[in-house]
Amino acid sequence: MSEAIKHEELVELLQEGKIGYLRFVLEGESEQDYLEWCRAHGTDPSDESAEFYVEQTDIMQMERQLIDDGDYGIWN
C-alpha cells in the first residue's frame, strides 16, 4: 500500500471518529518524529499530546507553504 493511500485512509478514519489522534500519528509517517517530540517536551504519547502535535505540525507546514508561495510572488 502506498504511503499516500495509507495517509488518506488514516485521515478518513480520524475524521469519522474511528481512530484517535494517537493511533493516527503512530500508524502514519510521523511516528518517529512524534515520539522524539514527546521526549523533547517531557510528555507521554497520548491522544491529547498527539492532537497537539498534529495541530502544531499542520501550522508549521502552512507557514512554510505561505513562505514558499511568497518566494514565487503568488501573494504579490
List keywords for this structure.
76 residues; 4 helices; mainly alpha; globular
Write the layout of secondary structure elements.
Elements: H1 3-15, H2 21-26, H3 31-41, H4 47-71
Quaternary structure annotation: single chain
Helical segment tally? 4
Secondary structure: number of strands:
0
- N/C terminus separation: 40 Å
Total individual domains: 1
The major β-sheet equals: none
Give your account of this protein's structure.
The structure is a single chain. This protein has 76 residues and is mainly α. The chain has one domain (3-71). It is 72% helix and 0% strand. It is built from four helices and no strands.
Summarize the structure.
The chain has 76 residues and is an all-alpha fold. The protein is built from 4 helices and no strands.
